[in-house]
Write a structure and sequence with these properties.
Layout lengths: L1 H58 L5 H15 L2 E6 L4 E4 L15 H8 L18 E10 L2 E11 H53 L14 H50 L7 H29 L7 E5 H11 L1 H6 L3 E5 L6 E5 H18 L5 E9 L2 E9 L5 H4 L22 H11 L4 E6 L3 E10 L1
Parallel strand pairs: 6-8
Antiparallel strand pairs: 1-2, 1-4, 3-4, 5-7, 7-11, 8-9, 9-11, 10-11
Helix pairs in contact: 1-2, 1-4, 4-5, 5-6, 6-11, 7-9, 9-11
Bound molecules: adenosine-5'-triphosphate (ATP) and magnesium ion (MG).
């Protein structure tokens, strides 16, 4: 991941940044070149102007030669240029440097003279000029007029190296800045993409790897509020759920093993006792009947577990039909005749109308009612009262199973729907597994229906569930 994403990102951003800076530097260089040339031209023109007055006076024999030459020398030294004073016939009249003395009286401006006379072109720029200026130079010829008559010209030649010196300096500054900016942005980019994207992604990747290997407690420590932070948060909450599932699984396994161990231990004890002859012959039947009970309990436990697993995994399909819930309730109550009598419980039935048609899976609803009534009988006080009621409201039928006796504590209320949860250990019989209510709830949620419990303080416990009316 590091190589792929990181390299691509850095490469893409670096190319974009470099192109940006190179374009900027090129535009800036071109602009500066134009600007500099204009400036230089203006400077030379105004320098030319400085000697123009004296030159004109000299050409009209109003000032002596040495004054003009002194001016030319002064200006030439100041502007690092060689300056020649040209007459209207193109002859060299005066020079700024003695090495040009030999050209005095020579006609050096010929074809350009025509242009200059016309006054069309005031400045002629050229890199080299005949064999006078050998060095590669920038040459300006500024014509001079007196009352519209062409009187002569001033020729100023500046070696290119002097012209380009400041330009090169500025170029190197521009390109050096561009280089610094590009490398600077590269490092900033490198640092931030590492810090903001790559490292967090690596951390997430690392955590995912750990979790997939079974370390469900692993979490990502990223506190940023951006998309990566959100991803980390989502990932952590997914890990929480996984951890919870894992914990439930472990608890489930330990509960199942525990529930299986106690009947197996007692069965093994009794049968071993009979086989060893430790249990006397006349007591064998008694112990065998206890063993039988334990085997029944084991069978019930295994059946309950299989039921619950099948319902929760959606393997058990519902066969829903129109059924009379009142009739189903009556049937279920009769099954508990013996328990009801032995505990001297009063069972009241309060139906709304003689029959109540609902749409449900009959066998599953019998399972629900059996579990609820079994609980009611189990947890009702001796000689207490059980009341089963049906009611309708809109499209729903409400079936409640009430028993008087102690209410369920707030703490237990949170857990009674959990598998293997048995609240009052002293009151629950040995045969309890704590799977009844989870099965009830799973069946009803498979029907798309609801179940809840109401504590009636000082009165009893009421389980209510809904079914669809037809
Ligand atoms: N009618 C009730 N009155 C008081 N407490 C109840 C009632 N019904 C359920 N409970 C509490 O809820 C717990 C869970 O009930 P559940 O039916 O799931 O398990 P169980 O009855 O203990 O065992 P099983 O139903 O597997 O024989 C019970 O142990 C009991 O503490
Ligand atoms: Mg029960």
């Amino acid at each position: 991941m590091k190589k792929g994403l990181f390299t691509k990102m850095i490469l893409a951003y670096s190319i974009i940044i470099s192109i940006g800076f190179i374009i900027t530097a090129t535009i800036l260089s071109f602009w500066f070149q134009g600007y500099y040339n204009d400036q230089k031209k203006n400077e030379l023109i105004s320098q030319g102007q400085y000697i123009q007055d004296v030159a004109l006076e000299y050409l009209n024999q109003k000032v002596p030669m040495d004054i003009v030459e002194a001016r030319l020398k002064k200006l030439g030294g100041y502007s690092k240029s060689d300056i020649l004073l040209i007459t209207n016939y193109g002859l060299v009249e005066a020079v700024s440097d003695d090495k040009y003395k030999k050209f005095e009286g020579n006609q050096i401006v010929t074809t350009d003279l025509v242009e200059l006379r016309k006054g069309e072109k005031h400045i002629i720029e050229s890199k080299e000029y005949k064999d006078i200026f050998k060095e590669s130079s920038h040459i300006f010829i500024i014509p001079m007029y007196k009352e519209e008559y062409f009187e002569g010209a001033i020729m100023m030649s500046t070696p290119l190296k002097y012209m380009k010196e400041p330009l090169d300096k500025v170029y190197s500054i521009i390109w050096l800045s561009a280089f610094i900016a590009i490398t600077g942005s590269f490092f900033i980019l490198y640092y931030f993409s590492q810090k903001i994207i790559i490292k967090p992604l690596l951390e997430i990747n690392n955590a995912v790897g750990k979790i997939s290997q079974g370390e469900v407690g692993k979490r990502i420590v990223i506190h940023s509020t951006d998309e990566i932070g959100e991803l980390a948060k989502a990932f952590n909450s997914m890990a929480d759920s996984l951890e919870q599932v894992d914990r439930n699984r472990q608890r489930f396994i330990s509960n199942v093993s525990h529930e299986l161990r106690s009947p197996i231990t007692s069965i093994r004890g009794f049968i071993g006792g009979i086989l060893d002859g430790v249990i006397p012959k006349e007591k064998e039947n008694y112990y065998l009947s206890i063993t039988n009970d334990e085997i029944q309990r084991l069978t019930r436990l295994v059946n309950d577990l299989l039921d619950l697993t099948a319902i929760e995994s959606g393997q058990l399909s519902l066969y829903q039909n129109v059924i009379d819930i009142n009739e189903v309730i009556r049937l279920c109550i009769t099954k508990f005749g013996i328990q009801v009598d032995s505990k001297r419980v009063n069972v009241d039935v309060l139906f709304e109308g003689n029959s109540l048609q609902v749409f449900a899976d009959r066998d599953r609803i019998i399972q629900v009612l059996t579990n609820l009534i079994d609980n009611a009988i189990k947890y009702v006080s001796e000689g207490g009262r059980i009341k089963i009621t049906t009611k309708t409201k809109g499209a729903k039928a409400y079936i409640s199973v009430f028993n008087d006796g102690p209410t369920i504590s707030a703490e237990d209320l949170k857990h009674i729907w959990d598998r293997f949860y048995k609240a009052d250990k002293s009151r629950t019989s040995k045969s309890s597994t704590g799977l009844g209510l989870p099965i009830v709830r799973s069946i009803l949620s498979q029907h798309g229906e609801d179940i809840w419990v109401e504590n009636k303080e000082g009165d009893g416990v009421n389980f209510i569930f809904t079914l669809k009316r037809t």
